[in-house]
Known about the structure:
mainly beta, four-stranded antiparallel sheet, elongated, 81 residues, three-stranded antiparallel sheet
Amino acid sequence: xxxxxxxxxxxxxxxxxxxxxxxxxxxxxxxxxxxxxxxxxxxxxxxxxxxxxxxxxxxxxxxxxxxxxxxxxxxxxxxxx
Length: 81
């Protein structure tokens, strides 16, 4: 298992503490909600990262104060075989 930290910053560099953050490590995996760590804009979630096709972590953001909903970000991972 690997732990992922997502830091969300809103307007005027303030912490984004009113967001739903989901993480998955493959397109076929279900989304798993990250846990908010205080009101500092940090969300954390452990997820299994295996060698092979799971080489990208996907982060879905849905923030209450943003007009755009369900932004999905893709982050490539380096996984040793």
